[in-house]
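Posted in: Protein Modeling Q&A

I'm a second-year student putting together a small comparison for a lab meeting, and my supervisor asked me to include a predicted structure for Endonuclease MutS2. I've never done this before, so apologies if this is the wrong subforum. The sequence is pasted below exactly as I got it from our records. If anyone can share the structure token output, I'd also love a short note on what stands out.
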Amino acid sequence: MIYPNNAADKLGFTDVKIHIQSLCLSDMGRQMVDKIQMMSNYDNIYKFLRQTREFKEILENDSPLPIRHLFDIKSLAEKIRVEGAFLTEAELHQVLLSLQTVFSVISYFNERESRYPTLEALFEHLPIEKKILKSIESVIDEKGKIRANASRELQEIVAGIARAEQEARKKIDHIFKTAQNSGYTADGSLTIRDGRLCIPLLAENKRKVKGFVHDESASGQTVYLEPEEVFQLNNKVRDLEFDKRREIIRILVALSNDLRPYVPLFMAYHGLLTKLDFVRAKALFAIETESEMPVLVNKAELSLVNARHPLLLLALRKEKQTVVPLNINIDEKQRVVVVSGPNAGGKSVCMKTVGLLQIMVQAGLLVPVDEHSVFGVFKQVFADIGDDQSIESDLSTYSAHLSKMKYFVENAGGKTLVLIDEFGTGTDPQFGGPIAEAVLDALNRKKIRGVVTTHYSNLKLFANATEGLENASMMFNNLEMQPMYILEMGKPGSSYAFEIAQKIGLPEQVLNAAKNKIGTHQKKVDTLLVDLERDKKELLEKKVVLDKQQRRVDVLLRENEQLKEYLDENKKAILKEAKKEAQNIILNANKLIENTISEIKETKAEKEGTAKLRQNLQQELKKHQIAKEAPKQVSKADEELKHGDWVKLTDSETVGQVIDVTKDNVILAIGELRSVVKRKRVERITKKEVPKEIRKSYSSQLTDTYASFSPEIDIRGMRGEDAVQEIEKYLDRALMMGMSSLKIIHGKGDGILRKLIRGYLSKYSQVSRMEDEHADRGGDGITYVYLS
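Accepted answer (user: helix_wrangler)
Welcome! Here is the predicted structure, written out as tokens:
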């Protein structure tokens, strides 16, 4: 159910249907598209989505489906259902072409059995009655005309007409030629008047040729005369034409009587043709809008990945532009998304995209999203979009909004998708904001799902503090003052009212006057949102750089893995080659020794000759001599480490000092940095091995640290993220210097900062316990942290 009735129009669903209708081949297909509506039965939705996806697969990757002729054979079947009624030649030709299409389609799918199961189900158990085709083809030819041999009587009548026309033509040609020779005829040739072949005669000569005058020219100078000799023959032709018409009607009545038993089958064939045209149009629309079939679940949830508004996609494509994709998630925990941000920043498009795509999916249409997107099934879609003021109903804009809100609150439930554009507008913001907040609270208590757009700060704050609601904002480039049309979850957005006004050129004095009129609190909130937007943009840019670097690292890792695999694969081959080479060396050495001994014997042990041979032998052996392996030293990594030891990383020349040792990890101080490395990655070195400049720098830093360090830190007024970073650095220094406790002054306020800090510190194993200061000295505005 969609409420109100015009919500489908405002979300663009009606325009989507009109576009799909333009892709249909037949009126019945267009009529079926017009009946598309949102369904809530999971099985039906899934079936229609599968049908469209399978047809899309055919259009993109298979042979063309033989859909050539789609006629409304349902109305023709209804016509011959009445006893005595008959189909004309043209109507029978439409039936013939439609049945040929039906049988071709059925054969097409039979050849691809089980490849398109949901489409095959459209004509399951539907027979191919070729007897019908033969009956029609025996009477109607391929041009849609009745065959001359459809019956023996008709064949004889047609032959009689041909003979009579031939004889009449022969006679009139002779009379016309004679009249021409006598100068009786006017300019021109034989012509037809009242279905009769006539001679054009000059008016003054009409009495010179016997016959019947059928007509005369506008000037009265020419008459058209049928000669008396031809008159009887033409009457005979006309009589035969009447006989032919009667025989044709008799044949058509007989054929219609033969087809009457097949009326139910004709209706089934008609249904198949209609559905094929309908699904084909939906598949063409899916291809045109780059749509996919998402994941469908039988829950009230929604997760859009790279979603685009189909109508916006088509419109921008004509202008050679692209749509910025939308990513949004709505589920049990994050039920309602409150979208804020600048005007013309895309809030309404975001909301309408969610609503339109959800309705399209539940109507069995594929949607332009990533195929991993998830769509649930909602029983109702409630939408409040635009101005619905009514003079007839005496409703103002705000009254119309309130009427819808009343209906929403009374009828919405856990399976209702609520879409509200510019929530709370239309009246004094002082009252509109609180009323909108109350309505949102009531809807949230009913566990509805939805998207709400607003500029009201109280709704942003309410969403931030309420379970089930989630802030989101449309990103804005505050340097170029241009919207980015990207939805960012988790934080509200500024309206950038003053920034946009300044860009447009509103006088500075007017802007300053306006700024002075708004409250200090509101100014702080808006400034904070602008700062958050700027910080977010910087983080986004850094993330892009990091992603690029990560991709480079991934490439190097892959290359390294490939090299390792290559070495592992070729290790055996290399060793085999080395062994073979060693064997050759030994073999050659043995030969050399044997030859040397032999030569020594031959020289009868002369001193000079023997010395020379020994020298040659030593030189040859030195060529293959392997250097002696140095004795393996005991790894320094196996030695026990303690606080204050100097160590060096085994895989680099980096030197650091041990702060603490925990199981297999070592906490190091490397200059101003603190790092945790595995025990096996470091080896202890002596103090003498540490470069003097490092020792001197470290000693100086340690002395300065001890001199300047205070076991007390004041973080009041800091933002949560900044406070956590400051405490992290502070805790590292305290652990390095062996402090037993810390004092953190965070103030009381709403207790948010206290809760954040304690939650963060509880993750450290070195923190043994935390407790509040004495009530007289600050109480829960101060936290004592005890270190082990």
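A couple of things worth pointing out for your meeting: The longest strand covers residues 469-477. The chain has 23 helices and 24 strands.
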